[in-house]
Design a protein that fits this description.
This protein has about 325 residues and is mainly alpha-helical. It has helices at about 5, 10-20, 25-35, 40-50, 55-90, 95-105, 110-125, 130-140, 145-155, 160-170, 175-190, 195-210, 215-230, 250-265, 300-315; strands spanning about 275-280, 290-295, 325-330. It has a three-stranded antiparallel beta sheet, covered by helices on one side. Strand 1 (about 275-280) and strand 2 form a beta hairpin. Helix 9 (about 145-155) runs antiparallel to helix 10 (about 160-170). It is globular, with a radius of gyration of 24 Å.
Length: about 325
């Protein structure tokens, strides 16, 4: 239901108020909230469907969807709470992964996120060990706090790594001109070293305004990958039947079946797109898709590409006795029945 991606929350709430016993309106509202990761709101609407004019089948489907969202909420809370406890137990040796889980896309209240980072920053004082924590803070959206720490670390501007960190934090706070000026200082300090080459690459990125530093992007990607897997924790993946080495026919057939299964699994991310095309490079010895090339419509978003790639990575196809030619497949996006 692509409508859930474009509605305005005030309109959704107006429809709910005007149609309190309309089951379809509540289902639409639940999809709206679920698409925005407002799972508790979605669960509330799904529970309310029992009191509407929805059919028995619709009520059963709503209950199943609500149970699915509850599992997501519980699992995510368990992961976040465990990581928060681990960080609090030893701020000095806090794991970067625990900080990512606890604060990047975790829905932990902003006040608690700031407290965690403030304690980690205090525990490390003015040391280079702080630098990776500052990058994760940027990924968590604490650009102002990261800038304050970076300014302290940069001090008298004698260390190129620390000055480069300050430049990155200025860029994250929307000061591209200041970031470029500061990065030029770092490049001058790193003259004739391998760091100079790396910083020149970053200067091109900042000057073009083309995204964040790889460390920041990596932290966000790790968190996104984890939360996407949590959202699919109770969904079965396509797995071909185990077999010994077979003829290529079985592999080709399994690749076609895989594309159909992936199309169904990723239909919710497809928006208005009805299909996509791709090529799969399959390892005949393991049955795994080792690489793929996807051809998506321009209107599709990154979530669709990520969904397809995740499903392909997890798939297990039959083993073949000889090398498998690159397979061309079509993904047809049909929602689950």
């Amino acid at each position: 239901d692509t409508r859930a991606l474009y509605d305005d929350e005030s309109l959704v709430r107006q429809r709910l108020k005007a149609n309190p016993v309309d089951g379809r309106i509540r289902v639409g509202a639940a999809k709206f909230f679920a698409a925005r990761k407002q799972n508790r709101e979605a669960i509330n609407e799904l529970e309310g469907i029992a009191k509407t004019d929805a059919s028995p089948a619709e009520k059963v489907a709503a209950q199943r969807f609500a149970d699915h969202l509850r599992r997501i909420v519980r699992t995510k809370e368990d992961l976040v709470n465990a990581s928060v406890r681990a960080v609090r137990a030893d701020y000095l040796n806090a794991s970067i992964d625990d900080l990512i889980i606890a604060t990047v896309g975790s829905q932990l209240p902003p006040k608690e996120v700031r407290v965690l980072y403030n304690e980690v920053f205090k525990a490390h004082a003015n040391t280079d060990e702080l630098i990776p924590y500052v990058y994760v803070a940027l990924a968590a959206g604490l650009s102002r706090e990261a800038l304050n720490i970076a300014e302290t670390l940069a001090g008298e501007r004698s260390d190129p790594k620390r000055v480069a960190l300050l430049a990155e934090c200025k860029y994250a706070n929307g000061d591209r001109t200041g970031a470029l000026q500061t990065l030029d200082e770092a490049i001058a300090l790193a003259k004739a070293t391998s760091l100079e080459t790396q910083l020149n690459v970053e200067r091109v990125r900042i000057d073009a305004g083309s995204g964040d530093l790889s460390e920041v992007v990596s932290a966000r990607s790790k968190a996104s990958d984890l939360w996407q897997r949590v959202e699919k924790l109770d969904q079965l993946r396509f797995v071909a039947r185990p077999s010994q080495a077979t003829g290529l026919y079985s592999v080709v057939r399994a690749a076609t079946m895989l594309a159909a299964a992936v199309g169904t699994q990723c239909a919710t991310e497809a928006g208005a797109a009805d299909r996509a095309y791709g090529t799969l490079d399959i390892d005949n010895a393991t049955g795994q898709v080792v690489s793929s090339v996807l051809y998506l419509q321009d209107s599709t978003n990154d979530r669709l590409r990520e969904c397809i790639e995740d499903e392909l990575r997890a798939a297990k196809l039959p083993i073949a006795a000889s090398r498998v030619p690159v397979q061309s497949v079509t993904f047809i996006f049909r929602s689950h029945p």
